[in-house]
């Protein structure tokens, strides 16, 4: 295996990890604060991708497509949170998991009805390549990597340096104390859910130039997303970032070494992590319903 191939695989793994992180950070936040498994995030990911495709096809403006996708998904997720999730917060995690999977399937059906089943390509808005040690790296993948890093620091700043973010973080640690301070916990739930869905839509929109846009694209990435949140630890933003990097690199180099290894190796790693640390690499043992 020569150096150019290793560099290409590494950058590919980073770009995949960036998409994994943007998609799964919302899952982790929803569990950390609201104690729900929000499988409909995969629907918002697919919807964001299809809205980006539609806007790009109509206007040729990729960034406008990303923005419109995030805005529409934010509005739709707000309606879902208010009309459905607000009624089930006191239910068990398994209840929310089953219900959200139903929302996901219904959403995929809606996408199939509106956009059809034909795969749709989207051209990368950033062309060219960067030369790294004699290896050409697509400029768009580099952009996605830096954008995901910026989102991580943005989420970190929001959670650690703002009043609302501090309240959310406190709610993750002890919801009862936050409620005792007179803070409306349901408003925090709504903001967290909308932020999570918007990041999922961003992940879908950014992923469109790397894959074909199809209705089931959210379902196809579900297994890898679950491996990321389980390895990193549900509720941990840092754990989500670290596990996204690990899974992205395993998938990339696994595909290079032996195709099936890209699917087998992350699963085996997840089993090993669960045997050693049942709550994941960074998951708190104090997280509870």
What descriptive keywords fit this protein?
two-stranded antiparallel sheet, single chain, ABC transporter involved in vitamin B12 uptake, BtuC, globular, 12 helices, 2 strands, 73% helix, 289 residues, mainly alpha
Please, could you describe this protein's structure?
- The protein has a single domain, classed as ABC transporter involved in vitamin B12 uptake, BtuC (Orthogonal Bundle), CATH 1.10.3470.
- The model has no long low-confidence stretch (mean pLDDT 86).
- By secondary structure, it is mainly α.
- Helix content is 73%, strand content 3%.
- Helix 1 runs antiparallel to helix 11, helix 2 crosses helix 8 (185-207) and helix 11 (237-257) packs antiparallel against helix 12.
- It has a two-stranded antiparallel sheet.
Topology:
Layout (H helix, E strand, L loop, with lengths): L2 H32 L6 H19 L2 H22 L9 H23 L13 E4 L2 E4 H23 L1 H11 L1 H6 L4 H23 L9 H4 L1 H11 L4 H21 L3 H16 L13
Antiparallel strand pairs: 1-2
- β-strand number: 2
Question: What is the approximate shape?
Answer: globular
Provide the spatial order of strands within the biggest beta sheet. Answer: 1-2
**Looking at CATH, which topology would you report?**
ABC transporter involved in vitamin B12 uptake, BtuC
Q: Percent helix among the residues?
A: over 70%
Which percent range describes the beta-strand content? under 5%
């Amino acid at each position: 295996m020569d150096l150019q191939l290793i560099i290409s695989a590494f950058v590919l793994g980073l770009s995949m990890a960036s998409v994994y992180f943007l998609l799964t950070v919302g899952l982790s936040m929803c569990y950390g604060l609201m104690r729900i498994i929000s499988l409909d995030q995969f629907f918002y990911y697919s919807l964001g991708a299809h809205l980006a495709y539609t806007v790009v096809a109509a206007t040729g403006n990729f960034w406008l497509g990303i923005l419109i996708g995030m805005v529409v998904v934010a509005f739709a997720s707000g309606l879902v949170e208010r009309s459905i999730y607000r009624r089930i917060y006191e239910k068990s995690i398994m209840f929310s998991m089953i219900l959200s999977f139903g929302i996901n399937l219904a959403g995929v059906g809606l996408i199939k009805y509106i956009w059809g089943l034909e795969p749709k390509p989207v051209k990368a808005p950033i062309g060219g390549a960067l030369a790294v040690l004699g290896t050409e790296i697509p400029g768009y993948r580099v952009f996605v990597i830096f954008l995901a890093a910026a989102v991580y620091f943005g989420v970190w700043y929001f959670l650690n340096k703002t009043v609302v973010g501090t309240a959310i973080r406190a709610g993750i640690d002890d919801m009862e104390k936050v409620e005792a301070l007179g803070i409306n916990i349901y408003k925090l739930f709504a903001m967290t859910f909308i932020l999570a869905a918007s990041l999922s839509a961003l992940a879908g929109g950014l992923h469109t130039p790397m894959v074909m846009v199809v209705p089931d694209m959210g379902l196809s990435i579900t297994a890898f997303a679950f491996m990321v949140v389980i390895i990193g630890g549900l509720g941990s933003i840092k754990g989500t970032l670290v596990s996204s990097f690990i899974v992205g690199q395993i998938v990339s180099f696994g595909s290079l070494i032996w195709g099936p290894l890209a699917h087998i190796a992350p699963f085996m790693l997840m089993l090993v992590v669960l045997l050693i640390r049942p709550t994941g690499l960074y998951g708190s043992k104090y997280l509870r319903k």
